[in-house]
Predict the structure.
Amino acid sequence: MSFTGLAWWDYHGVALPYSAGDGPRSTGGDLASGFTRTPLGALLAAVHVSVRANAQWGPQVFEPTITKQVIGPDAATLLAAMRELYGKRHGDLPKDAALGRAYVVLEAFRWQGYSPDTASLDLVSAGPGDSDMTVRAVTRIQLQWQNDDWRVIAPPGGTWGGAAASLTSSDGYIRFPNTGGGS
């Protein structure tokens, strides 16, 4: 898979990859859709949908992302968990406001499988931890081609933590170019 032509743009503190050929073709309303039925399209959908399906960006982003782009038996549980998390962290912010910038870098990924109908990959992210240490996590993201676009299958138990594990080495992963994750 070639990363030629991939551009990285800031999304509230997270550098996300964009491809003129593979997507997202639409980013209106802080949402992302329109990915090609290719390995790169699946990878881009996994990144964009999983990042946006997070309480951090507020209900105007996570609710339509989850209701329109996340499928599977745990999709409703994920939506309820994000609403609850947002409610706990919202505090005195204006109604529906984002909780602030994110401090995470998408570093690498590894395919678990790909076909034109389904895809599965592990996504490595890094962020600040205790004592100025960088903490890395790997999150399994599964996708299904449905209604002419990739849909993310909700993580087990409806929480991203249920699909994530800490990571001490990114050996064996494909590093993303130009994101701080290598070249």
